[in-house]
Design brief:
The protein is α+β, with helices and mostly antiparallel strands. The chain has eleven helices and eleven strands. The radius of gyration is 20 Å and the shape is globular.
């Protein structure tokens, strides 16, 4: 773990910026919020040892592509070093690490907003559709590198259920079994694109709209970007939308109404969406359990999984047929 003193000196040496640094959460990397004496904010990222430079290039290239598309979304942008580089490899504490700096996007995280009204969720759906349209023309070779959080690789995560208690393990394994049996084989033939792949409520930004109401208008953390069936993007977002919702189908419908107005979904995508939502929740629980097994102090592993398990329980009480009908109606999809 890199200390703030070392990070502060890196920021000064590479970017010519004096700032106070505060550590931010990172699953693998060392991240810091940098605040200058004048109040300007940046995010300094020091990647884990062995990080492939192409993974960083993927992110910086995608952000530049989206900036050129002028999407009217608040998205971070890379800040060049004093030498004009988007990222740089240098010695940090005796190890080679990739270092880069991002602009700061203001806003409240969606996970901290209550209540999450249908109107707010619709704005989330619209924001994700805008993002997916912006990424639809983006390509990068690193996007096709295997990634742990890809929904298409859920079967590789299934063994992690062994780190759960017996009751939870059984429930989560049932989700994985259903995915492998009924859904996995259908993914290959669906529309694919590069997706953000991590629109969880801790990465989604909410600000006050022109009408004075809260609106989702930005997204951060492009570290999990990957080339996947595009429907996985909506499924991942909806996996977090349904958490702590008394009527998860209504919440999903609000999201899909706005999403599909800009980014149409086909019948094959709608047919598997409900199962993909459950699968993402199961993946989240299983990976957190594995991380806690490897390191009991790991922040991801220590996260409370009860909200996710409650969401899965609510989804278990809904038939896939009912969900598909609601989703088709929300997307104004007719036979």
């Amino acid at each position: 773990m890199i200390n703030s003193g070392t990070a502060t000196q890196l920021l000064k040496n590479l970017y010519g910026i004096d700032a106070n640094l505060t550590r931010l959460y990172g699953e693998l990397d060392d991240n810091f919020l940098a605040v200058t004496p004048g109040g300007e904010k940046r995010v300094l990222k020091i990647m884990h040892v062995g990080c492939d430079p192409q993974r960083v290039d993927l992110q910086t290239s995608a952000m530049a592509h989206l900036a050129d598309a002028d999407l009217e979304l608040a998205l971070p942008q890379p800040v060049a070093t004093t030498a004009g580089e988007a990222y740089i490899e240098c010695d940090v504490g005796g190890r080679q690490r990739l270092v880069w700096l991002l602009s700061y996007c203001r806003g409240i995280l969606l996970e901290d907003v209550t209540p999450q009204t249908d109107e707010l969720i619709r704005s989330f759906g619209r924001a994700m559709a805008v993002l997916d349209l912006g990424l639809s023309s983006f390509t990068h070779p690193a996007a096709k590198q295997p990634h742990k959080w890809e929904l298409t690789r859920a079967a590789a995560i299934r063994p992690f259920v062994q780190y759960l208690d017996s009751n939870s393990a059984s429930r989560i394994d049932t989700v994985f079994e259903r995915f492998e049996r009924a859904t996995f084989g259908k993914l290959e033939h669906l529309p694919h694109s590069v997706i953000h792949n991590d629109a969880n409520s801790g990465n989604v930004l909410v600000n006050t709209g022109n009408d004075g109401r809260p609106v989702v208008d930005g997204l951060i953390d492009f570290g999990d970007m990957t080339y996947q069936p595009t429907i996985c993007e909506a499924a991942i977002a909806l996996a977090y939308v349904v958490i702590d919702k008394d009527d998860p189908l209504q919440a999903c419908a609000a999201f899909l109404e706005a999403y599909s107005e800009l980014h149409a979904l086909n019948s094959e995508e709608i047919a598997i969406l409900f199962d993909l939502i459950s699968t993402r929740l199961a993946v989240s629980v299983a990976i957190a359990a594995e991380r806690r097994h490897e390191d009991p102090e790991d922040e991801l592993g220590r996260q409370d999984r009860e909200p996710t398990m409650r969401a899965l329980s609510r989804l278990d009480r809904i038939s896939p047929e009912e969900a598909e009908i609601r989703f088709r109606h929300a997307c104004n999809l007719r036979e």
